[in-house]
Amino acid sequence: MPTLEIRDLFVALAATPDKPIVKGLNLTIRTGEVHAIMGPNGTGKSTLSKAIAGHPDYVITSGDVLLGGKSILEMEADERARAGLFLAFQYPSEIPGVSIANFLRAAVQARLAEGEEIDATAYYKRLYSKMDLLKIDRKFTSRSVNEGFSGGEKKRCEILQMAMLEPTFSLMDETDSGLDIDALRIVAEGVNLMRGEKLGVLLITHYQRLLDYIVPDFVHVMYDGRIVKSGDKTLALELEAKGYDWVKQELALSASAAVATA
Amino acid sequence: MQPPTDTLAPPDLNFDSEVGDSASTVENPTVGIDQSVGDFTYDVKYAFDAGSGLNEGVIRYISDVKKEASWILDFRLKAYQTFLEKPMPTHWATKDLENIDFNKIRYYLSQGQKPKRTWDEVPDDIKRTFERLGIPEQERKFLAGVEAQFDSEAAYSNVKDIVAKQGVIFCNSTEALREHPEIFRKWFGKVIPTGDNKFSALNSAVFSGGSFIYVPKGVKVAMPLQAYFRINAENFGQFERTLIIADEGAEVTYMEGCTAPKFSTSTLHSAVVELVALKGAKIQYITVQNWAPNVFNLVTKRAIAMEDAEVKWIDCNIGSRLTMKYPGVILKGKRARGEVISIALANDGQHQDTGAKMIHAADDTTSVIVAKSISVGQGRSTYRGVVHIPKHLKGCKNNTECDALLINTNSRTDTYPAIVVRGDTHAVQHEASVSKVSEDMIFYMQQRGLTEAQAMSLAVNGFVNDLVRQFPMEYSVELKRLIDLEMEGSVG
């Protein structure tokens, strides 16, 4: 079963490589699993997802990320994508003049061997079946990618791309506190439809609310660039009830305990 | 946005130029080339070469070879004097023009000599482009023997036969002026006077080739007339001359140049293209210019639109070292309409200096300019526009939109819109934007599996998409491919 392994990962902004944001993060995700990473703002959740996807603004200063046992750190962002990694963006870019259908077609074409041409009929058939599955109106894909989209439409566009590109691992950056309930539902329904043996999901969120719709197999709490607590879905409920301060206090306690034993 | 009624005009926009993308309709009656299908001969024993440099002797030689009427020779000689008198327009245009050495140029070279053009002789980058464009093997063979097969293009001649039955005249400049002076002489050199600019004067002195078209009253030519401009022998047809006359109520679409093979050892192409749309006529003129990157492409294109007539220039510039071309429409009759749709792509070492001119000269006339440019690497694009609406007119409208896209941080774009509007019954709108392809946009596309180059290509195609859709299908497909090719080397 394929895995996505994050090993003792340190990430910084490329402009300030000596100031790590992610500080020694370890996590292994298998296909079939849904992991949720939660944590207060500014703990490096979005940085983690962008660095794994290969965003040029970030630099991995140490550690490794392995996809199916192979390090992806030397791969360009597009190679990582073609290897099966998908990032659902918190703020997806607009691509004026390029329709969703044409954009996805180019993305599918990019996955074919050189010289191989996409079968247009088969492509549209598959696109429409995915749209039916996700209850997306046919007219949607003739619009330019994300141009003038509402928050919900952007999410729908991301989910449709994920459905079409069928990644092995999907990193879903849903940290935006402004996410409205419709957008949350779109993301949740999409993930629930695609959930299964062939897909591993890393769901990054600030709010427990999203987890009302997507029940994760594992929940991790991220704080100050690290995962400080892991558990099952009940951890999310505990966090909701007690707040992040509870985690901070526990951390402080264990730190002083460590000092005491030393 | 409401523009000021008076905008400072750039020093002198009298240079409308563009040359050609059209380059060369080669024909030389004296060497026995007959344009009609299956009935041509080619005598390789004849070679006509006017040599390098320009003087009266060269002009007389050209006129003599063409067996021209004396008025044409007079026209040429007068134009030559004008050319000599006119300064290079470097007081407003690029100094790169000074690199043109008029003494090294060969002004007339007809295909009398043994064909030399084989694909082996084609510059590698052009050859590679064609191969990657997927031009069929058949086309490649055709070009390999381009002289022998010139004018044997069946499609071209078929169209010609059909339109001929409607009374449409479609031939080259030499033939037109010799066989149909009563039709063409009236307008020849009238839309663009010889002295319009230095390069229109040069063209007037040494012109050869080009298309002369007459569409009779009420005739609507169903299919576009297409010019297959192939450079036949070196240097030939660099100064082509085109004149299209659509008589009252006539309609015609003309497509030229485009991605058809055009390569040349010469460095200067300077055409003059005149369009005449009489009452109620419609002319659409489509160009896709993809010259080799060593070519100075200095072309003057202008139309005159009479009452209720419509002229639309669709102009796309991808190739050349320097292109200067500002297609214009003189809106001479009431309710006439002029439109320029322009796409320019400037890559490393290229300067696309393009734009449009709209001269309103009657009431209730309308003009539209939409110009989009893309600057890649150290490429430079310049938009120059003139819109002129004088005080005595009423109810004129202009809408100008120019958008520039910069790909790299060292890419350059300049915009010089000169809009002069007098009077208070006109509506004028001008919009301009400059944008850059953002790193985030590229990363977003890469994250979906597209390479950086593919992502860039898609972004650029998206930018021009609404204009490309106005091109006929086959041209828009070729245009997209050309853009893809241009963008491929632009990243990394």
Instruction: Sketch the major β-sheet of chain B.
Output: 11 strands, mixed
| Secondary-structure-derived class of chain B | alpha/beta
- Distance from first to last alpha carbon of chain B: 39 Å
Strand order of the largest sheet of chain A: 6-9-10-3-11-12
**How many strands, what sense, and barrel or not for the largest sheet of chain A?**
6 strands, mixed
Q: What is the helix fraction of residues of chain A, given as a range?
A: 25-40%
Overall number of structural domains of chain A: 1
CATH homologous superfamily annotation of chain A: P-loop containing nucleotide triphosphate hydrolases
Task: Please tell me how large the radius of gyration of chain B is.
Answer: 22 Å
Mean pLDDT score of chain A = 91
> What's the overall average pLDDT of chain B, rounded?
77
CATH architecture of chain A: 3-Layer(aba) Sandwich
Give the N-terminus to C-terminus distance of chain A in angstroms. Answer: 41 Å
User: What is the domain tally of chain B?
Assistant: 2
Counting helices, strands and paired strands, the structural category of chain A is: alpha/beta
Fraction of residues in β-strands of chain A: 25-35%
- DSSP strand count of chain B: 21
Q: If helices are DSSP runs of H or I spanning 4 or more residues, what is the number of helices of chain B?
A: 12
The most extensive interface between chains reads:
A-B, 30 and 24 residues
Helix content of chain B: 10-25%
